[in-house]
Specification:
The protein is mainly β. Helices cover 9% and strands 52% of the residues.
């Protein structure tokens, strides 16, 4: 009898444990995208920009420095009939001593599960739900093959629509060049290179690097974007050359 009582008690414990395990559901709560890309008319962010350019037919490497201000101008309807926001861009010198000069526009369209940006007729998915480390999406899936051609004479953007964007990590703090940012999501987009730094001038090289960081209640606070290739042009006129571009931008002011 004692053995049967122990057996019945053990079975009851297993049954109760199983019921509780089945009824327990892990509930994942995500923050909202508009907390990291806030869009209110009049909001602006000012950035410092280091721009990598190749001049002299791709044979000279230069870094040009300036400031850019991006300001939400108005709520509009995009070309797909969706509520969107028009962003004005302004440029001035890196020290901020000259007046702002108009430098074009782009558009941001917030949707229920993603935020899109359209610039120069190119459509990007900048952020996507849920905000969770490791979550990935095809951020360039709307881009055509070779979207930067023929302006840039390279082929490294042929598969740009297949890049996997993903949330790399969430950092309570992030610092860059003495500026501190808080509550930052880092989005890795691509990090590939070959023969970089170039150790063999007679060999082909390329660099693909894209990462963005968004701070809660502020927006984009850091971006690194490089697409370039090196052609040794062995035996060709003029020798080796570079084709492509790169930028590094970080927030220095906002309202």
């Amino acid at each position: 009898m004692r053995f049967q009582s122990i057996l019945r008690f053990s079975l009851l414990c297993i049954t109760v444990s199983t019921l509780f395990s089945c009824n327990e559901k892990e509930e994942f709560v995500t923050e909202q995208l508009n907390e990291y890309i806030p869009l209110q008319v009049g909001k602006y962010i000012t950035y410092r920009i280091d721009s990598l350019v190749f001049t002299n037919f791709g044979r000279t490497i230069e870094t040009r420095r300036y400031q850019v201000k991006e300001q939400v101008d108005a709520q509009i309807t995009d070309n797909l009939g969706r509520p969107s926001f028009r962003i004005y861009r302004y440029l001035r010198d890196s020290l901020g001593t000259l007046p702002w000069q108009s430098a074009g526009t782009y558009f941001i369209t917030p949707l229920s599960d993603q935020v899109e940006m359209i610039e120069d007729n190119l459509r990007f998915i900048k952020m996507h739900m849920p905000l969770k480390e490791g979550f990935s999406w095809k951020g360039n899936r709307y881009l055509p093959t070779g979207p930067y051609q023929p302006k840039y004479n390279f082929t490294i953007d042929n598969n740009i629509d297949d890049w996997d964007f993903y949330y790399d990590n969430f950092s309570p703090t992030f610092s860059y060049r003495g500026i501190n940012y808080s509550n930052v999501w880092s989005i890795e987009e691509i990090d590939e290179s070959f023969n970089v730094p170039i150790t063999s001038a007679g060999s082909y090289a390329y660099r693909l690097r894209s990462v963005e960081k968004y701070s809660k209640t502020i927006g984009l606070v850091y971006r690194e974007y490089e697409l370039w290739e090196y052609q040794p042009n062995t035996g060709g006129p003029g020798g080796p050359y570079y084709a492509g571009f790169g930028i590094k931008k970080w927030m220095i002011d906002h309202n």
